[in-house]
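Exercise (ungraded).
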Amino acid sequence: MLRKIIFPIIILSLLSSCIELIDDITIHNDGTGTFKYSINLSSSRLKVNSILALDSLDGKKVPSMGEIKEKINSFTTALKSQNGLSNVRSEFDEANLILKLFVDFKTVGQLEQGIKNSIIAVSKEKSSYELNESWIAWDGKTLKRSVPLTAFKRSNELTSSDVDLLKTGTYTSISRFDRSIDRFENINSKLNPSKLACMLKVNTFDLRNNNKLIENSITLIPFKNK
Amino acid sequence: MKQAVLLPLLFLMIGSTLLAQQSESLIPKEAVTVFSLNNISLLQKISMDELITYDFMEEVHQELFDGSTNGKSLKDAGIDFGQRLNVFYGKNGDYEVTGFTIGVSDQKQLFEVFDDFEQLQSKYKDVSIYGSFFNNLILHEKSAILIRVEPSMELIDEQTDSIWYARGNGNPYGDVFYDEEILTEDIYSEEDTTIQKSEVFPEASDDPNEKNYYELRDSVQITLQNKLLEGILDDLFIKHLNLTTEDTRFKEQMSHTSEGTFYLDNSRNFEQAKGLSYFINVLPNLYQDIRELYTGNVILGDWFLKDNTIEFALEARYGEKLGSIYEELNDAKFDKNVIPYIHKDNSAFFTYNVNMRQAYEKAYEVIIPILSSEKNSDISMNVLTLELLNEFINKDALFGTYKGSMFGTFNGVKKIKTKKIEYYYDEETFEYGEKETEATEDMPIFTLGFSIDRNDIPELVLKHLSKLTSLFEQHEDYWKFNNAILDAAPLFMINRNGLFILTNDEDLALNHVNGYGKDALSKKTARSLKHDGFMNGFVDISGTLNRFPSDLLNQRQSDMVNALKGKSGKLYLKSTKTSKSSTNFLLTYSFVGEDKSGKHMLDLINTMYIFSK
């Protein structure tokens, strides 16, 4: 997801040093919800800015800040036109290099499809294994999710010296619900005291080596009709 | 009896060797740059087996052998390593000429390697010509030249258009002169950049016997190539003109016994420089005057392999007028104020001493008369402006602020403090917020200092800037410009002791504002710097490169740095006194270890090759 837009930023951060990623999804009982995604490169400002100052790196063009902002805007615009998605907005803090995306959705299926369609809209890639893959599923009782960022899977293209720099980054996945969580499969997950939210934090280096680290299946207590 | 036979034979052999044509006699006079390896002495120290393992040799192998002679090397190429290997490049307004000349010991072996070449007809006595696509291999006596002549696109287009329109043809591109979409296409963001719009190319002719524009252009290109090559070969084999006969400086250079020589005729480079056509056509007298100014501008170099040392001796020669400016420019006393600011353990530093005021006065004296003699209203107005500025500007203040002398150091990579945004989580709700915290990042630390007499002027500027923005902070001993570097790191300015210093080294600004004291450069080094010419430089290769953050470099620079890493050498550059006719530079690379100097030199050449690839 967001590969064409965020991939250059991810690459910049992977080549420099630490990155902080948060994906935060809220699913209500009726299946609607909110998805928030945040990429924080502020701790690598110096290195990211120095890379942005280059024309190219490893034979690939380094995008300018203007080009990055343009891609973000194009993606946001494409996302706004997708069925079942509303209140779409993105915020890019250029000074601190923090990108945030906010989306309300009617169903998680529409969220997933909307994001895929938007990637296709802003990139030439019309089909790929990653785009066909499903990263989220919700049946009203169980939420199954994995990494909603295929760019991370692409990080396999990085050289070993670059990969070392991932070691200080974190990826945080938060899932929120209207009713209590009954159980979850990923043992590294943490429940909040009210059992309405589940958080999973992993190291980006470990995640790069094993995408399954962020996979989780969260089952809620049965829905009670009043 | 034996002596009676052997002695004349010996004299005959020595005589034939001395009189025989050498590879340098085949270097065309059009060559502007020549890089010559004196094979005899070089190969005494470097084995060919070692030589062919280098990246730059791989490329030569590919170029020469085109994959058709796998497993072979130059060693198997029938080359006479008793002669020099000369690589040359030349360019004029009409064409480029590139190639190399070598000695030949075994023609059969040579053509086992150059097996793509076919013999062509030769009109020259004792000269065999072979061709393969755009390359030609020409053998004469015991030497050979591999040459490629490429006419400029301007010349090809001009000739093609002339023939094309003379035949009554219209615009070969039709009405579509250019495709706006192609010009604006983002070549970077899209992977498939193939231009598929056939309408931008001329259509094939209806008559298969009549050439379309591009076919005609190909024919013109080949014809021009042949004609230009013929001109060069006529010079070489009929008129017996070559670079050694035409440039005594080059001939003299070829007589050196150094391991290698370098020749670059800057004056001819100037003549062929792009962008001068306006001067040539509109201001011919001015062009002629400037050309005269550059006459005699040539760089000659030798390198010598010694035990654990490689020396590059360069001599920059120039004409008297330009020399008079250089002489004034370099007539600067070493600014001893810089010594305390160079730490004795610095991985790299340079000092540069020039007298900008004297150079300005001399340049004014030399150039203004040239410009004034030009009968052109624009030039006259510019001369008037220059002369008025010369009268009105306070040169004492200007050159007191920027004297020209400077120094720079690389202090390695240090952790510097920056700010970052960190997320904090509410353990009850997992809601998160942002807070600003301190971060540390690696940064290469540089210092750049300028000699200055008028410290009050930058102080004046900085005081006003600090009123305009809070990014400028005045501290007791220095100024701090926050977020000046890449929007993240501060820049410190130290304005004292006859220097204006810019640095991102917080330690220097906070703790060594008057220099490093006893930790500064040794007195011995300082004495050496004072006695040398206008330029001095030092690089501890391992110390510098191992501390340099390679993730800030592009791929080529990174390759170069990696190729040099592990070397324990030190590079010193110094210039000697500048005269009206020349300035000499000496670059010394010294190292410790068991490696032979030749190997170290090849490592350096390999690095340069990777860098320039």
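Further reading is listed at the end of the chapter. For now, observe: Chain B touches chain A at residues 188-192, 416, 418-423, 425, 427-430, 432, 439, 441-443, 485-489, 551-552, 554-555 (CB under 8 Å). Chain B has 23 helices and 21 strands.
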